[in-house]
Amino acid sequence: MTRSFKAVPAIALALALFDGAAHAQTIKIGVNEPLTGAFAASGTYVVNGAKIAADEINAKGGVLGKKIELVIEDNKSNPTEAAAVAEKLITRDKVPVMMGAWGSSLTLAVMPKLTEYEVPMVVETSSAGKITTSGNPYIFRISPPSAVEGAAFSKIIDKLAIKKADFLVINNDWGRGTAEDFGKMMKEHGISIGLVETMDQSAQDMSAQLSKLKATDSETIIVTTAVDQLTLIFKQAAAIGLKKRIITTGGSQNPDQIIAQAGAAANGTMHLTTFLPWYPDKTPNPEATNYFIGEWKKRGFEFAGVTESFRGYDGIRTAAAAIEKAGKAEPAAIKAALWEINIKGLNGDIVFKKSGPPARKAARASRTST
Amino acid sequence: MAQLLQHLVNTLVLGGTYALLGIGLTLIFGIMNVVNFTHGVLYTFGAYMMFIVVHQLGVNFFLALPLAIVAGWLLGAAIEILLLRPLRGSDIDTTMLVMIGAWIAMQSGALWIWGGVAKSVNNPFPDAPLVLGPVSVSWLRLFVLAAAALLIVIAYLLINRTKLGRAMRATFQDHDTAALMGVNVSWVYTSTFAIGSSLAAAAGALLGPVYVIFPQMGDLAAVKAFAIVILGGLGNITGAVIGGFILALAEELGAGYVSSGYRDAMGFLIIIAVLIFKPTGLFARAERVG
User: A142: distance to nearest CA of chain B, Å?
Assistant: First the structure.
């Protein structure tokens, strides 16, 4: 009898040691971003921003006395891959929290995996409304949904005296969601909506769509897509002599990159962005913004990327704050802690509140920002 | 009317490069009977060669083009000698699997060397387009069209008017007879594959500066090239040229008047129709070689 009593604590101790050896060094945060494919430029910027946050946190002693380790995986700008990457990060790397997945369609593809494995994810870029209104309690979004972006735009839209507008949007949840949300807002301002043209995310030639838009009686075109496709659109619009006012949305335009790559073809275009690194002192958190921009330049990255990379920086700091608050690196605790954090992001305070239709009970998150 | 004219001008500039892609593949797929999955990678390779030669070596844009084409020729010859020559005589499935492997390996290689972020190539043409009444077109695209037309004519003359061309046609009509007549069959295989590859690289080198360059850019181009070859009939150079323009027209008018969301599907709807109603291609000759 006595012998068997002694054996139990010995086994428990052995398990504890074994368990400790596997997890002692670092706390992992999964990063699910597009590093190849149509959104490679944007995803790479976000990852570089995330690395700055991780290095800064680790230089200050890490989280819960341990260093954080980013496990970065490429989702190839492809929703199927994004879901596979999430599964790999959760089951193989055992990450207790993730950040991702840049594009709305990519994030939407990951969401069922979050429910399946009960791991929370901080969404740093995606803007489609349904991400936070579909009732998935593991989604914590820090980027503005397109309806919020539209509401911000509505404050200045009357000054532009738009009478009729067409849309040219990327053919995915982000683009179509933007056309819907902006269209609704613009109709409320008495603006009539003409054509809604779409383009495949990997399309390189938009001349056909632009020729069609050139022939309409609208004077403004609202364009939603990522920076590489935008550059091509400006060049191709100039080439077919399209002279309408172009306004881009989504916050993934990287205006400096457009100037560098599209040159004169981008003259007179307007861009709705969410973060203004050109005036760091006017951002919500000037001290942190100046630090971030300084660190970005020190690492030799192009300034153009800052409008995108701040998302990765804020995303990792959000995840790290939640781990600290949770007191342990476990998914359920981190998910609960995300509701309680209040940190100063580069683009405003990050506090989560529930969103979505009241009929559904699941918790939803969105960001309160300026 | 103005919109239709603009669509037709767009078709012309797009169709020229589609034709170039198509004839490169029809030589290899149609005549040599090799399902060439590396065609798209060779297109990508041509575009990256432009980037390297113009931006990293600082060579003039117009000199860079022939350099990129020669590089494509050399890479094509290397693929033929290293991968296809040992497999000669084996069935089409084996060759196809090896080519799929080569495609994946080369695309991953491009990713490893140049990274996933898209690059763009500067060109010496003015930003302001050429305006002709209601339509306008960029000078770069006009140049691309002219260069594509020149390359198509050269390829046509090479195959129909030269000794090498005659040897090529003889070899793929009857391999053994050609060999008995003193044709160096091995060399003809290598040359044909290299010429087809250099045309793919030429299309990439011409379109790289028009668009942006990234490792997966060739995937869609390759699918379209296969569509053009099927449309024009296997091994039919003229068919591939016309097929290229038909595909461009279908995409332009499809996007312009039907739905832009299905732009890239338009071409494939035509292919399905062709395969159902005229499976040998729109321009198939009574007797095909190969």
Answer: 25
